[in-house]
């Protein structure tokens, strides 16, 4: 019985010590710059951010409601400035469609999942041109 007690004491101290040690969670930084592809096959390229968090790029949609040929369209946006504590930034950008009389604004956040994969979650609003203010409802 005397030999078991020191072993149990050492084991319990090891368990307590491991519970007190700080858990290291990797800090992943979500970076907007690069090529992004959505579930429908649309893709966009975001160029490097400037010192103010502004960026430009291009958007090539895979879907459209017009009969026009789809073309790559320019985008302009801004990312909320981040620091080490805010590694999953919010952002917004506007796409001026080259092949239709419409503009879409996107707003979202860049996330990093537990496997380190970067994911953009966005909401968007499309505004189409109409000929008369009475038709504003369908814009």
From TrEMBL:
InterPro entries per the UniProt record, alphabetical: Avidin (IPR005469), Avidin-like_sf (IPR036896), Avidin/str (IPR005468), Avidin/Streptavidin-rel (IPR051764)
Disulfide-linked positions: 30-110
Top-level taxon in the UniProt lineage: Eukaryota
Pfam families linked: Avidin
The entry's keywords: Biotin, Disulfide bond, Glycoprotein, Secreted, Signal
Signal peptide (residue range): 1-19
Subcellular location: Secreted
Transmembrane segments: none
Protein's UniProt keywords contain Secreted: yes
GO cellular component, as recorded: extracellular region
GO molecular function, one term: biotin binding
Family note: Belongs to the avidin/streptavidin family.
Subunit structure: Homotetramer.
PANTHER family (alphabetical): AVID PROTEIN-RELATED, AVIDIN-RELATED
Purpose of the protein: Forms a strong non-covalent specific complex with biotin.
Protein name: Avidin
Lineage: Eukaryota, Metazoa, Chordata, Craniata, Vertebrata
């Amino acid at each position: 019985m005397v030999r078991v007690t020191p072993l149990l004491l050492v084991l319990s101290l090891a368990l307590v010590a491991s519970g007190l040690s700080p858990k290291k969670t990797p800090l992943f930084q979500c970076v907007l710059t690069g090529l992004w592809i959505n579930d429908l096959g649309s893709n966009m390229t975001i160029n490097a951010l400037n010192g103010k968090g502004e960026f430009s790029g291009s958007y090539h949609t895979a879907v459209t409601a017009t009969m026009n040929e789809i073309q790559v369209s320019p985008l302009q946006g801004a990312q909320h400035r981040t620091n080490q504590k805010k590694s999953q930034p919010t952002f917004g950008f506007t796409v001026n469609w080259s092949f239709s009389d419409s503009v879409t604004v996107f707003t979202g956040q860049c996330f990093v999942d537990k496997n380190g994969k970067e994911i953009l979650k966005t909401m968007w609003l499309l505004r189409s041109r109409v000929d008369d203010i009475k038709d504003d409802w369908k814009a």
